[in-house]
């Protein structure tokens, strides 16, 4: 088995809050990330595909193709966007780096045909990241998250 990884970057804004909680509770849980008018992060996304290289090409997956999938399916939808308002596949989702990882997995898994999606690693800051290996997780969607 070989593991092939591609990395991309994007910049997005968001606000973290649960519409079912009052302001004090949201502030206690999310602190500065609950800032009413949002704030931004420079995200880094690594996607790792596992499999056996094609004996004819030597490739598991062409990294140009993997990058194109990541750019079209993720980057172009979230870069310079507000994750609470602007992204269809995040409607109602509290846009934590945990939830983003799970949803990115769901999107990318169906697009990666050569090899198998093995890991998503998503940095929200240089010192904070999530790793996700595709275990069954359901991300909750809320009414009224984008008000
Ligand atoms: Ni934040």
Number of domains: 1
CATH architecture: 2-Layer Sandwich
The number of distinct β-strands equals 5
Going by helix content, strand content and strand pairing, the class is: alpha+beta
Order of helices and strands: EHEHEHEE
The whole-number mean of residue pLDDT values reads 96
Radius of gyration, rounded? 17 Å
* Share in helix: 25-40%
The strand line-up of the biggest sheet is: 3-1-2-4-5
The main pleated sheet reads as: 5 strands, mixed
Q: What is the CATH class name?
A: Alpha Beta
CATH topology: Tetrahydropterin Synthase, Chain A
Task: Please describe what this structure looks like.
- The termini are far apart.
- A hairpin with a 2-residue loop joins strand 4 (about 115-125) and strand 5 (about 130).
- A five-stranded mixed beta sheet has the order 3-1-2-4-5.
- The chain has helices spanning about 25-30, 65-80, 95-110; strands at about 1-15, 40-50, 80, 115-125, 130.
- By secondary structure, the chain is of the alpha+beta class.
- The mean pLDDT is about 95.
- Helix content is about 25%, strand content about 30%.
- It is elongated and about 60 Å long.
- The protein has one domain: Tetrahydropterin Synthase, Chain A (2-Layer Sandwich), CATH 3.30.479.10.
- The chain contains three helices and five strands, in the order E-H-E-H-E-H-E-E.
- It binds nickel (II) ion.
- Nickel (II) ion binds near residues 14, 33, 39 and 41.
């Amino acid at each position: 088995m070989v593991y092939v990884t591609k990395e991309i970057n994007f910049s997005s804004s968001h606000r973290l809050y649960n519409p079912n909680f009052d302001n004090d509770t949201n502030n206690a849980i999310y602190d500065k990330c609950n800032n009413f008018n949002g704030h931004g992060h420079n995200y880094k996304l690594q996607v790792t595909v596992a499999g056996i290289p094609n004996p004819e090409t030597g490739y598991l997956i062409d990294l140009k193709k993997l990058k194109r999938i990541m750019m079209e399916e993720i980057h172009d939808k979230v870069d310079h966007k507000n994750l609470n308002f602007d992204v269809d596949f995040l409607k109602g989702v509290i846009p934590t780096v945990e939830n983003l990882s799970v949803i990115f997995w769901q999107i990318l898994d169906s697009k990666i045909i050569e090899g198998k999606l093995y890991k998503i690693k998503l940095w929200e800051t240089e010192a904070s990241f999530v790793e996700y290996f595709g275990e069954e997780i359901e991300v909750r969607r809320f009414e009224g998250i984008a008000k």
